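Predict structure. Chain length: 307.
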Amino acid sequence: MIISIDPMRSRKPGISLIELIVAIGIIALLIGVILVGIQKAREAALRAQNMNHHRQMILAVQQIAAQKEEKITGLAKSRMSGLKYAMGSQSLFFRMLPYVHGPIRYEENMTVEQSMEALYPNVKAFQNPADPSLNYGRWSSDKRAKCSYAINMFAFDGSVNLVSSNSDGNSLTIALSDKYYSYCSSADVGPTTYHQWTHVFDPRDFSKLDGAPYGVRRSTFADAGWKDVIPVSDPDARQTRSSTPGKMFQVRPRPEEVDPSIPQSAFHAGLTVAMFDGSVRTIRPGIDESVFWALVTPRGGEVASLD
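Prediction complete.
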C-alpha cells in the first residue's frame, strides 16, 4: 500500500512574517493611544490641582480684604525707586501665608538651615505643579520661597478696594495668574529672572543684560517697575491694547524660552487665572489681545467677556 503525505498538512502551525508585522503595528498603535490617554489624564490632574491653588489664594485675598472693610493697603507699588528697605508684608503672598500654609514660626535657637526653612518656605500653594522651570537646572534646586503665580500689579498697585477699585467688575478683572517661576538661558546657567513670594523690590540694575531686568523679582505681571508688558486703555474708544503689540501670554514654553514680561501657561488649554470675584477661569490661547488686556485693567471701561 502506498501512503501519500500532503506536505501542506505536515507543516507545523505558526504565523507568517506579514502577520507578525501587523500584530506589532497594532500593539504599537494601542501603546500610542494609551500613552496619549495617560498624558491627557496627567495634565487634567495637574490642571485641577493648579486651579485648586488659585481658589485657595483668591479666597485668602478675600479674607484679607474682609478684615478691613474690603480694603488691602500697604502693598508693593509698581515703582518703588529709592526704597532701601521693604517689609515682607508688602507682598500679597506674604499676607496669604496664614491662610494657605500656616504662620511663620521662627525661634532664636534655630540653625541657619532651619531659619531659612522657617522664614522662606517653599509653599505648595504657591507652586504650579506643572511649571517646568521650578527645578530647571542645578541652580534652581536650592532656591527658597519659589513662586510660579503672579498678582496683577496693574490692579494691586499699592492698594485695592474690592468694592470700589474695580469699576469694570470683579468678575471681569484678573487678580492672579499662572506665571513660570524662572527664566533660564540654559540648564547650565543660573536663572536670569526668578520669582520669590517674599520679594518686593524694584530691579537694582538693568545694565547687565542690555537694559533687561534680571535677578530675583516680585511675583507679579503687568508690573511697570519690572518693565513688564502692560495694558494701555483708550477711554474714547473704550478699548485696551498691549504696550507691546502681539504680546499676551505664552503657552507651554521651555524655561529658556520664557519672556519674563508676560505670564506663562503650562497647559495646552490656556492660562489659568483667578478673578476678583473668586472664580477661577481658563483663558484660551486664541483670545483676542484687546479682550485679554481688558481683563487685566480694573477701570478701563471696556466691554469684555470670557464667555
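Summary: The first strand starts at residue 71 and ends at 72.
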